[in-house]
Design a protein that fits this description.
The protein has 276 residues and is mostly helical. Helix 2 packs across helix 11 and helix 5 packs across helix 6.
């Protein structure tokens, strides 16, 4: 190539990653919720939203103070978190174990996967009447409903992640004398980590959705019980508080998983353009 052939060419410049300030990221993420809150406040102030339809933000804040002051909100929150947490732990454990079994062993895949895929297609809400017949209206039915709802997202993600593990690497580890459990712990699970975290995110989100359904099973305490009581007395302010609590639980779960991703997979924090 002669000098004339290179005239006008520009030397390539590798993309430079420029991390965005944390305050900028938080501000951008907060724009949506702030805009919705402003719209809610403006609609209430102008009369477009009447209290019998939806309480104003000020009335909701007063309701939070009322419920927190008499101890109803802390007690209900503790009960709901216990239900959701126990169900989530059971569901994650079952989904992880089943996913590893079907993803790592051919026999497990042949014996279990078709049955589990069939059960996965059954909406967990349709199980509410059956669970009431089997377990009654006590805490067991509520916790197991949440467990069922959270098992299958974790199972699908785990099985897919395990199947995508580099088989050559697995065979190499076997050649070095590692047993099956050691390979799962040291090779398979780290390789399937992105899928595991995706399953965790879906399961934690579904645990909140299942909690709402579970607390419709003749609950006498919890956020769902507060909602049913508020509905009886047409307290839209308390209804709004309960809905916001459910939303905050889901948001907290998502933030928790995002934090795990930053800790366990820091190389994935950069976006397609090289910025975080």
């Amino acid at each position: 190539m002669t000098a004339t052939d290179t005239d006008g060419l520009v030397a390539p410049r590798p993309p430079v990653r420029r991390p965005r300030p944390r305050t900028y990221v938080v501000t951008v993420r907060a724009l949506g919720p702030v805009a919705l809150l402003a719209l809610w406040w403006a609609s209430s102030a102008t009369g477009l939203l009447t209290p019998d339809v939806l309480a104003s933000p000020a009335q909701v804040i007063d309701a939070v103070g009322e419920l927190w002051g008499n101890g109803q909100l802390p007690d209900a929150l503790a009960t709901s978190l216990t239900r959701s947490g126990l169900g989530l732990v059971i569901g994650l454990t079952a989904g992880l174990a089943l996913g590893i079994t079907t993803g790592f062993t051919r026999l497990g895949d042949e014996l279990l996967d078709s049955s589990l895929q069939t059960l996965r297609t059954i909406p967990f809400l349709s199980l509410v009447p059956l669970f009431m017949v089997w377990f009654g209206i006590n805490e067991t039915a509520k916790i197991l409903l949440i467990a069922v709802a959270t098992t299958f997202p974790m199972y699908v993600s785990t099985a897919g992640g395990v199947r995508n593990t580099d088989r050559k690497l697995v065979e190499a580890m076997r050649g070095f004398g590692l047993g099956r459990l050691a390979i799962v712990r040291q090779v398979v699970l780290p390789g399937a980590l992105p899928s595991l975290l995706a399953g965790l995110r879906l399961s934690m989100t579904l645990s909140v959705i299942a909690l709402i359904a579970a607390e419709e099973i003749n609950a006498t305490e919890g956020i769902g019980y507060l909602m049913s009581q508020a509905q009886s007395y047409a307290r839209t302010d308390i209804l709004a508080v309960c809905i916001l609590v459910y939303g905050l639980l889901g948001l907290t779960a998502d933030v928790f998983v995002r934090g795990l991703e930053r800790i366990l997979m820091p190389w994935r924090t950069a976006g397609p353009g090289g910025t975080t």
